[in-house]
Amino acid sequence: MSVRETTTGAILVTGATGNVGRQVVSQLRHAGTVVRAMTRNPGSAKLPENVEVVRGDLSDAGTLDAALDAVESMFLVWPFNTAEAAPAVLDVVKRHARRVVYLSSMSVRDDVEEQADPISAFHAEIERLIEESGLEWTFLRCSGLATNTLGWAEQIRADGIVRWTYGEATRSLIHERDVAAVAVHALTEVGHSGRKYILTGPEALTQVEQVYAIGEAIDRPLRWEEISPEVARKQMIAGGWTPSFADGALDYWAKLVAEREPVTHAVEQITGSPARTFRQWAIDHASDFS
Ligand SMILES: NC(=O)c1ccc[n+]([C@@H]2O[C@H](COP(=O)([O-])OP(=O)(O)OC[C@H]3O[C@@H](n4cnc5c(N)ncnc54)[C@H](OP(=O)(O)O)[C@@H]3O)[C@@H](O)[C@H]2O)c1
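Above: inputs. Below: predicted complex with NAP.
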């Protein structure tokens, strides 16, 4: 990757042990950038040896000064279900950094007073707070991460049957490497400030087609077995979802049966490479399903 480097200070990556942040860290290193990775538990973070790892907790703004020391740009992943802690975090960030690249969601709408569901609502609120902070910002409004389908891995390993709801919901899932590649451009080049990028995969597949693609990647025939939204809702809540988050997701999947999720070409426009397909993602993650 060739990026025009404009960053003089370090780049702090939050969520550095997560799906997207881990990729941002390794791609920034590959681009030759000074990168600092933040985690609550440096001892178990398993980050590359040549990366500076710092302890920090977004729920405790007092832990962030040290992590942000001499940092110019920050990749922000928000791990909570509300924006409650964000004002205190941004107060610290703006004392140190100049620029924030925020991992947001494609479901955020600019043309409504009230967002449709609680996930969109907290992302919209954090975007608003960042815009008002005086920091330079870029929002990466992503479609569903392909890593969401890792939630099927246990069923696939057990008997090859995915029992879930809205099999015909059609989504343009995105590879975490593509989100990270865009983040690297936004963190290291000029020209991305004030931009809201809608990032998606290159095609929209039904959930049933996603399961077949995983089957091809692991060379095992897999099956979809439709369950009702009510049963799925019970499972989601038993798995830790709040009722309002579960309802928001179920309503969204129901909508995607009638209306395919949009596909954009922003990944290719920004990085110069087409977004990876879900089939490629499944090949990259075959070992997670085997
Ligand atoms: N899934 C989707 O389809 C989708 C779509 C669009 C946007 N998003 C957004 O993407 C974000 C999740 O990204 P991801 O999947 O890459 O993350 P992830 O794999 O779920 O990892 C969560 C990260 O958050 C960190 N974290 C958790 N609690 C923390 C705290 N109190 N302080 C600091 N860091 C904390 C964890 O780090 P440590 O445990 O090491 O501290 C970990 O690196 C969410 O904001 C989500 O809304 C997701």
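Residues 3-142+176-199+262-271 form a domain with the Rossmann fold fold (CATH 3.40.50.720).
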